[in-house]
From TrEMBL:
Identification of the protein by name: tRNA N6-adenosine threonylcarbamoyltransferase
UniProt remark on cofactor binding: Binds 1 Fe(2+) ion per subunit.
Database matches in Pfam families: TsaD (PF00814)
Localization annotation: Cytoplasm
Catalytic activity: L-threonylcarbamoyladenylate + adenosine(37) in tRNA = N(6)-L-threonylcarbamoyladenosine(37) in tRNA + AMP + H(+)
UniProt record similarity statement: Belongs to the KAE1 / TsaD family.
Binding positions (Fe cation): H109, H113, D308
GO molecular function: tRNA N(6)-L-threonylcarbamoyladenine synthase activity
Principal location listed in the UniProt entry: cytoplasm
Cofactor: Fe(2+)
UniProtKB keywords: Acyltransferase, Cytoplasm, Iron, Metal-binding, Transferase, tRNA processing
Organism of origin: Rubrivirga litoralis
Amino acid sequence: PPILAIETSCDDTAAAVWAGGALRSSVVAGQRVHEGFGGVVPEHASRAHERLVVPTVQAALREGGVAMGDLGAVAVTVGPGLAGSLLVGLSAAKGVALGAGLPLVGVNHLEGHVYSVFVEPPRPPLPFLCLTVSGGHTLLTLVEEGFRHTELGRTRDDAAGEAFDKVAKLLGLPYPGGPHVDRLAARGDADFLDLPSPRLAGKHGERPLFDLSFSGLKTAVRYWIADLGGDRAAVLERHRADVCASFQRTVVDALVDAVRDAVRRTGVRAVAVVGGVSANSGLRAAVERAGRADGFATFVPDRAHSVDNAAMIAVTAAFKLAAGHADGLDLGAHPALAL
Ligand code: ATP
Ligand code: FE
């Protein structure tokens, strides 16, 4: 029976319907209320979710051709995310579950990103290596049967998406900056700036297992701008695309390098790249190129399923239900949930 999924962890109100092993509908109502604030304002986000959640659920049901009475379960994101935003989705999901007498399934947003590669074919075999690159996380994990995730590496400071957004802000681009950097990088010179690699050098010149640090990269761009002096605005204007290209290549090289290392060390030849930053053209192309060169299969979700959406929550819930897992109406929100 069809599953309705609701996702409200950050600033997108999303709902999706999954049935018969396929996606029936996926609706994302972007909140325009954060423009001009340079980031998400939590209070504005939860209010916008309150306004949008019912119409978004209705649109998902309508587009999916499913009536409330046909549903078999309701899935909802329980964390990580903004507490107030999570609670709006959770309350809506409980309302539907209680009203229609349906089982409730709580889903970890990060698990949702990981399983977003199962929304559409081609789907990876288990186990697979998963690079999760989003606005708040940068993780490399081994994903095995039974929702087992073994961490192989992570960022020690900023997430990759955060680095994109912060550098974009330094360059005077709107929030979220990732897509803008992506667009400008396509026509910039990646050799313009020599930026420090986010891969950390360890003892004896040996790298610690896949650890990354993005904060130095952002600082390097900040210093470059600070050193421009008097005609800063003009130079910045002329070289904005070049800085974007240099920055993007440095990030992509480090991420792809870590992935290649992980394939070599684990022998696992299936790699998924998920999360908002997996929408990046440079990263998508580089991962596919590395896969062809090193002989591993790559799985990158459609861009619509890279950034936040409810389809990934629905497919994760389908896996959980199939494994016999369901939650009660006492399900709570967990703003700091880990993978
Ligand atoms: P998390 O999933 O870690 O809780 P989140 O849900 O806010 O955080 P996502 O929606 O997965 O994050 O991803 C949003 C991030 O992806 C933003 O930082 C955004 O700039 C980045 N992003 C989106 N598209 C692109 C792109 N084409 N290139 C680079 N970054 C991008
Ligand atoms: Fe996300």
